[in-house]
Design a protein that fits this description.
The protein is α/β, with parallel strands linked by helices. 30% of the residues lie in helices and 23% in strands. Among the domains are: 110-183, no CATH class; 251-332, no CATH class. Helix 4 packs across helix 5 (136-149) and helix 5 crosses helix 7.
């Protein structure tokens, strides 16, 4: 992590829980990380580790019965002032101006995130009118330019089409256009290449890189695809069961992983140099049920380096293990 610049977004000890009749689900359990201006932060982990809920917490759009229980989400605004998003009213005017204005979100599933009964243009123009003092004619012109900027052909015609008339790739591009329509300083991309073929995935990632260079915005990339992280990210945060288990630069994470979970994730990636018909490495077991969390380190039931009598009883803290490197593991304490 960069030390010489003030983080654009600083998350500290974030805890978000869902309170249900069956029990309490700790979706995010003490996550801490920074997003640097103009850089890309990759957040990786298996499904159910709390990545998407972290993004929803930042934008204050966590569905009930979930709520932020503890922590800080400090945003450095364009004028240099800082605001803790946790202290703002989720539906208040200041949070509404930040959500979509200073922080844009590409939702996880473009197939269902658009309204099927409104045109792409209606939803795009609505976002522009909400955050800019312009008329409908100017908002439509900006909407067409936004669609053109993300590579959608014939944007003058596409703006009046419905989401179900677009292919998966065009729908994802339209979703990115909506997120970028008000020129945010931070773009949160929640698995932006899910359900797309590999060719379209590459096009979407190239588009995000191009837009980042042109606008100088920061990107928080949420994914379970380590290949995407290796290609896009500057820094990486690895999450497991709502906790940050390791963070560092992308080169350090991929070439010198510290946490057993990070090592296991990297070992499970197929390689073209692998011996034919050799079984892929897997992580034994599965993520525990939210209502049956293990005591001690959350990963210890699946960890090959678990220390009996310690890992199953105590919870490791996230600590520095080098310049910009942090890991939550008793092997380094």
């Amino acid at each position: 992590m960069q030390k010489d610049t003030k983080p654009l977004l600083s998350v500290r000890n974030l805890r978000t829980s869902f309170f249900q009749d069956e029990g309490t689900t700790k979706a995010v359990d003490g996550a801490s990380f920074d997003v640097s201006p103009g850089k890309t932060l990759g957040i990786v982990g298996e499904s159910g580790c709390g990545k998407s809920v972290t993004a929803q917490s930042i934008l204050r759009i966590v569905d009930r019965p979930g709520r932020i229980v503890e922590g800080e989400i400090v945003l450095t605004r364009a004028d240099g002032s800082q605001v803790d998003l946790v202290k703002l009213k989720a539906s208040g005017p200041e949070m509404r101006s930040i959500r979509g204005g200073e922080i844009g979100l590409v939702f996880q599933e473009p197939m269902t995130s658009f309204s099927p009964v409104h045109t792409i243009g209606a939803q795009l123009v609505e976002a522009i009118l909400l955050h800019n003092a312009v008329g409908k004619k100017e908002a439509r012109r900006r909407g067409i330019e936004a669609l053109r900027s993300v590579g959608i052909p014939k944007p003058e015609r596409r703006i009046d089409e419905y989401s179900f008339e677009l292919s998966g790739g065009l729908r994802q591009r339209a979703m990115i256009a909506v997120a970028l329509s008000c020129d945010p300083r931070l773009l949160i991309a929640d698995e932006p290449t899910t359900a797309l073929d590999v060719t379209t995935q590459a096009q979407i990632l190239d588009l995000l890189r191009k837009l980042q260079r042109e606008r100088g915005m920061a990107i928080m990339l949420i994914t379970h695809n380590l290949g995407v992280v290796a290609e896009m990210a500057d820094d990486v945060v690895v999450m497991y069961l709502g906790r940050v288990v390791e963070q560092g630069s992308v080169d350090e994470i991929f070439h010198d992983p510290k946490h057993p979970y990070t090592r296991a994730l990297l070992q499970s990636i197929p390689s073209i140099e692998s011996v034919p018909r050799l079984k892929l490495a897997t992580i034994s077991g599965s993520i525990p049920h939210p209502f049956n969390r293990p005591t001690g380190c959350p990963f210890h039931p699946r960890c090959v380096s678990s220390i009996a009598g310690r890992c199953d009883k105590e919870v490791p803290i996230l600590q520095d293990v080098g310049e910009g490197r942090r890991v939550s593991c008793f092997l380094y304490q």
